[in-house]
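seq:
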Amino acid sequence: MKISPSIASSLDLLNLEKEICFIDKYFDSIHLDIEDGVAVNNISFGFKFVKAICEKSISKEKTIHLEVMNPSRYIETIKNIKADIIFVQIDALENPIEEIIKFKENNINVGINVSNLDLNREYLSKILELSHNILVNTTHHDDLKQICDPEMIEFAKKLSETKKVWIDGGVTWEIYNSLKESVIYEAIMGRAIFFNKDETVKWMLDAG
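struct:
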């Protein structure tokens, strides 16, 4: 299982160029969250900011997590951003299947973001058929401590048998080490990387 650092958890948001260089040096993937404060209870970066980061980073894989209401309204803007996959959060959408289809009709490499709120909804099996790339939230939106949920990890493992799966939320080094040989494709990690850079570098060097 690979690691994709989340720039939203950067240690020094006032010196993002340095943080991007850190990611590019030790990893080959970068993850960006666009949050509107409505679909989720947080506001992060805007599209211009994300576009600049994608242009600056030399990481091989750039993924965006679109955590907004009415995501298809931003399709034309997204077309101008050099990202490889756009994960669309579906749990707050009234018509998630229609939204995903709009991205596909515009030839955008769209992925599905699945949270615990989606697991028992009727649309889940059908919407999972629309993309091979699945981002599984491993924490719950209403959990202020953002602790990794073992049930969501198991869901991600099962899904990895047929899909390319990312996990995102509460993934510590301990959790990563327990999963690194699993079939899950990538772990999106934030605080564990940016708030413990010395440990991160040592771990990367030890891992070869």
